[in-house]
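Why do we care about 3D structure at all? Because function follows from shape, and shape follows, mostly, from sequence. That is the central idea of this module. The next example makes it concrete: a single protein chain, its amino acid sequence, and then its structure expressed as tokens.
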Amino acid sequence: MLKVKNLFLKKGSFVLGKLSFAIEKNSYFVILGKTGSGKTMLLESLAGIQNIEGEIYCSDERMTLLPPEKRNFGFVYQDFVLFPNMNVRENITFSKKYKKIENKETLLKDLVDFLHIESILDRDVETLSGGEKQRVAIARAIFSRPRLLLLDEPLSAVDPTFRNAIMKSLKDIAKRYDTTIIHVTHNFREASYLADKIAVMLDGRILQIGKSNDVLNNPSTLEVAKFLGFKNIFDNSLLGFNQPGKYFSIDPNKILFSYDNIDKEYCFKCKIDRVMGITDHYKVFAKVQNKTFFAKVPKNMFNKLKLEEGKECFLYIDKKDIVFM
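And the structure:
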């Protein structure tokens, strides 16, 4: 549905590009990255607000040089940008002033029911909560019947008590209203729940694209792994591989200890360096050669093993639990 080829943009010292990716029709695509990674700049480039090098196609139609109003893309900024001189109903239906909206009354009723905003339709937008403003901004964007809906950190200003409800609404939009969604965020939970596919974006570059579970559980590079918060990242030489520049990671919950040399492919002699008690587990830091592994050990297992600082034992991991980068 959407194809981006070698998109490039330079603003001051910041460079976006060269980015290439494709998004399927009616899918939910999340761009995940830190604040300042260029996510909003990318959305504005797709919307036609920024002048870029490269090519943008939507359903095989070249969008690159079209002005924003000719692209039929909806854009919801994180600060909503509602019209303060209009009430909620007028904000939602604003697009009917400049384009023909088929079955507009039926569409409005469906949006009102779907987003649970019937009780605020005649209210001044300045009196709305963050969550209410977000629902109105989403309704306004969908009412214009965009073929692509761009969401810029749509949940950042929403009270946590309403976030789950709005995420559920967002999840259903693509199929219900026959549109494709690009959602940018720095929140891993949002990305995991909403995305069909995720693109990890750092410093103006897309480093990995794939299905949600694949990206979040199997980072392809060291940089992506660190961004996603992976622990225990070591050079593959620790596992006996001669692969310069290749790394692996192991979940702290998957590390096991024993006083016997277990018949496992990756069993290492270690020394307990530090122990920290938490509510339901212990954080254990163990030295293997000159590397420090971080493990989470359930209290019952910790008490059984009687792990103490300075003790020597064996640390082992199962091959199936290793993530290679």
